[in-house]
Amino acid sequence: MAIHNKSHHNHALMSLNKMRKDNTLKHKTATDFTTPDKTMLCLNIMDCLDFLKAIPDESVQLICIDPPYNLELAGWDIYDNYIEWAAKWLDEAYRVLSKNGSMVIFGGIQFRDVKSGDLIDIIHHVRHNTKFKLINTIIWRYKNGMSAHRYFANRHEEVIWLTKTNDYYFDLDSVREPYSEKDLEAALKDKRLNPENTIKGKNPTNVWEINRLNGNSKERVGHPTQKPVAIIERFVQALSYPGSVVLDFFAGSGTVGRVCISRGRHCLMCDSNKSSTDYFNRHLELMKELGQNTDYIHIDNAEELFTNLKGEQQDERETAI
Fold first, then answer.
1. Which partner from 13, 148, 165, 257 sits 20 to 30 angstroms from 24, CA to CA?
2. What is the value of pTM for the model shown?
3. pLDDT-derived band at 111, boundaries 50, 70, 90
């Protein structure tokens, strides 16, 4: 009769589990990475599909986009068949996204009638025609907004969070919200909660109360649908790590680039509107006024960024040897 050494078996299993954790981003946080001295950043004025074609497979950690909604606000916001167009960039986004990566899409439910362009149509397409996994729908709740008399005034927008696999990177610690002194005391007494995590703060949940930018906001750079720095920061910190690549192929005001500079992520942006360059430069001016670091390495195109990254990784390997 064979005698199994359970202790040996358990030790081997623990070692295997540790190896799996060490080889995946799933259990890592920002503290496990080195922040680059300077962010590499590229902003091209071109069609998003042409821009995406130049990006290597599975090379991007986070895609953060606020696409046109087909509201006919301007020429860039009119599409006869929105989903047919969106399907093309969704397929490209899936190709370039890393296995541990995430994609977030801002949107909303805008239309009373049958008209493609809102998140309902995008979610339906993603569910039935792609391999993306829907992890969360984030409700962005704000107190300021337009009044209404024939319907309930809208005070929120939705953002969907998609991934390629279940091994996605998620750094909750970087975006935890602090407890009040009274709530922390109560939480530490709750036996169901891990005291170590409780001290770090609470999960911000999927309902985020962040005010929209009003006309007098000091963050304003002139773009009509500009998103607050705070909401972009939360996504960048939670879903990407220092030194990774963040992509926004509907750059708009360039807020994603601003956040990447301040948070030590490399950034690829493109937009079909030439004004995006002016908006982004205005962000840099505002950052300087606030005493924030605006140093970054200007990159001409996506190919150059990944060539530079490859060279840096090779240098690190040689240094380690």
1. 257
2. 0.89
3. low
